[in-house]
Known about the structure:
Blueprint: H1 12-26, E1 31-37, H2 40-56, E2 59-65, H3 70-79, E3 84-87, H4 94-98, E4 104-107, E5 125-128, H5 143-154, H6 162-171, H7 181-192, E6 197-202, H8 209-215, H9 228-237, H10 251-267, H11 272-275, E7 279-284, H12 292-304, H13 308-313, H14 319-346, E8 349-350, E9 355-358, H15 362-375, E10 383-389, E11 392-398, H16 401-405, H17 410-420, E12 424-427, E13 431-437, H18 441-455
Parallel strand pairs: 1-2, 1-3, 3-4, 4-5, 9-10
Antiparallel strand pairs: 6-7, 8-9, 10-11, 11-13, 12-13
Helix pairs in contact: 2-5, 2-6, 2-12, 5-6, 6-12, 8-9, 12-14, 14-15, 17-18
Amino acid sequence: MPSGPEGFVAHPLYAQEFTRARELLLATPGRWRVIYHYDGDGIGAASALVRGLRRLGYGFQTTALKGVERARIEELLHATPGPVIVTDTGASWPESYAAHRFPVIVLDHHTYPGSPTPPSCPPHVAFVNPLDWGVDGMTEMCASTLSWLFTIFLDPKNWDNVPWALSGAIHDRQHVGGFRGLNGTLVREALHRQLLTERTELVLRGATVAAGLEASIDPYFVGLSGRPEAASEFVGRLGISADRTLDALETGDRDRLTAALAGQLAQQGARPEFCERVMTERWNFPGETVDAEELSQLQNAAGRAGQPGVGVALAFGDPDAGHKCRDFWESWQSGVLRGLRRLEDERPCQLASIQWFQSPELTLAGTQAGLAITYFLDPYRPVFVLSRSDGSTKVSSRGTTWLVGRGLDLATACREAAAKVGGEGGGHRVASGATIPVDREEEFLQEADRIIATQLPAPEENHR
Length: 464
């Protein structure tokens, strides 16, 4: 395996795009504005970038976006008398960057109109997207691993940005089933450089077995997650003391618990690949007190709490940021549990090809939708969740890789349905979003349902 990044992908656009971005950045010393999406992947990407900028001696300012916000990006560009990096968002708006008077670097993994053919950009704009070089931005590279790779092109010392890369990749669930593609290449190199270690263990976390089960949201156990008494009774029926610590489980108890949890997931309708989630890989970093999944939870929770900058501050070892992120995580986990329990009781509305629900918790809605379709909702219909905020409706949609394999493309569905109602949308085939007018929600849902019907077999056909 090559020790440098230049040979990781054979496609000529790979080296061309990174070289152009590197030359732009190195030719423009000084203060850069980093615009990023406020979720775990965007925060991980921004973390890698600002660490790379600081290593160069550059100043920086970070600004987070909450959704598909062309107007907000254009407002920020207008207000910024200097160079800009945009990561985990904005790939669909190259004309906005062309109008900026200073260098712009776009590092995004989402689909865009015309992909995988990159847009024509003026010399002061660098456009870097893995789709352009045949790398799947849904499964093989996210914004944080893309930004990590860019910092490695800047300076090989930036291999040590691996924690922030994996934090974002885990948020985007690109670790499920093992890192693959270009992600896998980067992880193997980090292992070779002894910047990373891995182990397999039971997915639960907590002071005791019962506490870990009660607090679990990924996987989410219907009737057990968020229910302390039910979790204790479930463990007790297996002959395991509810207050036994996870580390103290003997092999027989662990095997029995693992089988019972996988059986519970199968009973509630989870597909086999998700039932296997009861055992998971843990990624550790020498010298760090948290593993990659914990870091992902902490950074994402900061974003969902409206404090993404606190999540970025973790990348500089700020102890105060660490304490705040712990508090954010506890609140975020409780909010997700409440939302999933509410979905258990109320169930989503169903159209011919999609299911949908309203969520008052804007910053939790996408997570609620993703976990629900993964573990207990109808697995044959993608789910849409709508949250009203600031005079518009934010839409998050989620599917599964199994549905994608059958033809699902939520990026197209969100983009086209939103455009029909005067909004904007985009993302990935398996997860996408949109911003639409509040008074056109029903029209959007009907159009999304119509589009999905052209992509997937009718749900009832899956039962024949």
